Input
Amino acid sequence: MKVYKMLFWLLGKSFHKDYRLIMFESFLGKQYSDNPRAIYEYMRAHYPDYRLLWSVDRRYRKMFKALGIPYVTRFTPSWMIYMNKAALWVTNSRLPLWIPKPADTLYLQTWHGTPLKKLGTDIDSVLMPGTDTEKYKKNFTAESSKWDYLISPNPYSTEIFKRAFKFYGVMLETGYPRNDHLFNNDNPTFQDYIRTKLGLPMNKKVILYAPTWRDDSYHERGKYKFDLQFDIAKMQAELGDDYIILLRLHYLVAENLDLSGYEGFLYDCSTYEDVRDLYLVSDILVTDYSSVFFDYANLKRPMIFYTYDIEHYRENIRGFYFDFETMAPGPLVETTDALIDAIQGTEISDFNEEYETTLFRQRFCALEDGNAAKRVSDRIICYLES
Output
């Protein structure tokens, strides 16, 4: 990494700054998604004088080519040149620590979720491979010290981000740009388009299962294990006439699950470009401790929490920022039978009233209105042009 760092620095000295160049990256260059995508799409439409370029992991270039998105391959000499020349970096996860940020480059960190589980320096004991608690916190704050701007989706997150990230830059409390899509495209025409694109039946309800990763269950650093902890055959027998399930694993999970025998019932959408479309075509969200439920709450649809390992997760892995069991905007269930009952229960009960989801949205979603990308982009471009 010392060689990379030196090469990055030397290339930075060899080229002039391009104050119209902005570099985007999502989830380590693996996706065209999330807050960076929403900001990119807004800037592309409203600031055409800027050159917008994506940083992409070489294993995921095919998707960007298919979509016609301009990109440069991560860690190549060309990438180092563009990263040095750019006036602004926009990403939703940490960049490698060895990358030195040029003094005249702005760094907009969008992050990627409202925190339920503890983050950064708030984590009591780090169980991830290849590091320890002290080293993890030191590296995290070394990276966050480079951030000039940080997006927050709500006042609750602002307080946590400032403390957990040791962030002293400019906080943009704007709502999440990625959620604009949920306001601007929540209509039958768009939903039918996505169903057709994914090859989904039109006559069945859609359950989106989007669990998070477990810090202490991994193959190696950066590659985490995950097993479906429900009885798929029983789920299909009980629900298959009326429902299908879309599976969306976390970007850090390395598994390629064998779903043979369940075609037409279980669809693996883990590599689909952006979860935002999956939200819109689903009727129910099933998750665990993932921050996806804060976003999904904007749609006012039923949410169920499949928390089969909640005691272990709460006490030994991360811990929560609030009393999840009492504040979750939906039922917590721990077995396949209970999960089936909860799904079927959405057909006869009003989940929004039963679980006080209005109060939940007032606390966590009040800033979301379909215009967050505009608020962020206009603020950043105004600074670049000042």
